[in-house]
Structures are given as structure tokens and as C-alpha cells.
Recover the amino acids of this structure.
């Protein structure tokens, strides 16, 4: 029985990690085998790349092209080392971001050529595509406040992405909206302004039809 591959997308501050943790817990209680991953990262190599992309002091001069390739180097490693074997073993894979983030951030945000971005992504993932993508949506103002709060926390390390300007995040937001419109069957929008439990319930309604009985 092939597994199930679900990705979570959206701009900063949509509460993706909280929702993934809640969903994983509920699925495990029902007896499903669940793998929680994040991008960039999820493997030892990917986590090194994540640090380089987000926090390394040298990333101030990183070009959008290098950013695109590093995101997809991390992804190629994750797909081959973890995602494909997990799906083959029948696990449910929950991934915090996947290639829609590349289209939104590097394509729309950094304004790289979208056809080029797509070909790099295709090379990195091959036929490994999400069965379902949940786009956790909060308005740009909410996302900005949550981003600022995160930056203000003195313990948080500097983050290259959180330093981008408002126009960048606006383009990312529009990028996600375009993706959802282009693939309405795979990409389902979730109103993430509701309370944590209400958002979890909405997510559960969307994933339930994809679940097979636990243990199969
Ligand atoms: P996060 O784990 O806090 O969401 O941080 C990951 C950051 O990386 C976030 O700002 C979005 C960004 N990102 C891209 O720009 N492109 C990608 O392909 C992925 C997976 C993430």
C-alpha cells in the first residue's frame, strides 16, 4: 500500500508547525505511521543547507540563483533519502513546505524565471509529488506582525528570509494564490486566522477522505 504525502504551505505566521504537530499526534493515535519533515532540511545534509540559507552570516550576499539551487539540493536529498522510502513503506509523510514554496519565494518573491524554477524543481523531485497540499492562509498584515514578533525575540537567530521587505512577501502571497488557483484539486486553502482547534478541524476534514484504514 503506497503511503500518503501531504505538504503544508503558506507565508510566515500561518501556524504550520503547530498544525502539523497536532495532525501527526491524531494520526498516530489512530495507529498510522507518520513521518514529520521540514524544508529546507529534514536530513543531516539538508539541515546544514538550511543553516546556510537562513542563518549563515555569508548569506547576505547569496544570489537568488544560488538560493534556488540550494533549496533544491536539500530537497533532492530529502526526496531520495527519506520521502520515497517512507512512502514505499506505507507511511504518511507530513512536510512543512515543499516545492510550492520554491515557486512562491524564488519564482514570485525573488522574481526568477518561473519556467526555469519549474525545471530545477522537476529535476529535484522527479515523480515524487504531494497527494494533497494544505495552504494555510493568513492576511499579509497578520503574517507581518507574527514575523516581526519572531524577529524581536532576542533568542531567535537572524533569518535571511524574515529580513525581506513587504513587497517581497506580497509577491510570495500572490504566488501562493496563483498556485492554488492553478491546481485546485491538490492545493486546498485553509483559513488559518481561526483558533488552533478550529483550523485543526478544517484540516482533518480535508485529509480524512485520503486516509486508508490504519495498519494497511
Ligand atoms: P520556516 O521553516 O521558518 O518556514 O523557514 C523556511 C524559509 O525558507 C521560509 O522563509 C520560506 C523559505 N523557503 C524558500 O524560500 N523556498 C523553498 O523552497 C522553501 C522550502 C522554503
Amino acid at each position: 500500500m503506497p503511503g500518503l504525502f501531504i505538504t503544508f504551505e503558506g507565508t510566515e505566521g500561518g501556524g504550520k508547525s503547530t498544525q502539523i504537530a497536532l495532525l501527526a499526534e491524531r494520526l498516530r493515535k489512530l495507529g498510522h505511521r507518520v513521518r514529520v519533515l521540514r524544508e529546507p532540511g529534514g536530513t543531516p545534509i539538508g539541515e546544514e543547507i538550511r543553516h546556510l540559507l537562513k542563518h549563515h552570516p555569508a548569506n547576505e550576499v547569496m544570489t537568488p540563483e544560488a538560493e534556488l539551487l540550494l533549496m533544491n539540493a536539500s530537497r533532492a536529498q530529502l526526496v531520495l533519502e527519506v520521502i520515497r522510502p517512507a512512502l514505499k513503506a506505507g507511511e504518511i509523510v507530513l512536510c512543512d513546505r515543499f516545492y510550492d514554496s520554491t515557486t512562491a519565494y524564488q519564482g514570485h518573491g525573488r522574481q526568477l524565471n518561473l519556467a526555469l524554477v519549474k525545471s530545477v524543481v522537476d529535476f529535484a523531485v522527479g515523480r515524487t509529488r504531494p497527494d494533497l497540499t494544505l495552504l494555510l492562509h493568513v492576511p499579509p498584515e497578520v503574517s507581518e506582525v507574527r514575523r516581526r514578533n519572531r524577529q524581536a525575540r532576542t533568542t531567535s537567530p537572524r533569518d535571511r528570509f524574515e529580513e525581506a521587505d513587504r513587497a517581497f512577501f506580497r509577491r510570495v502571497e500572490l504566488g501562493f494564490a496563483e498556485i492554488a488557483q492553478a491546481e485546485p484539486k491538490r492545493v486546498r486553502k485553509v483559513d488559518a486566522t481561526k483558533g488552533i482547534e478550529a483550523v485543526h478541524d478544517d484540516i482533518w476534514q480535508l485529509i480524512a477522505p485520503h486516509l486508508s484504514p490504519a495498519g494497511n
User: Anything to note?
Assistant: The chain has one domain: 4-210. The CA atoms of residues 135 and 189 lie 5 Å apart. The chain has a mean pLDDT of 94.
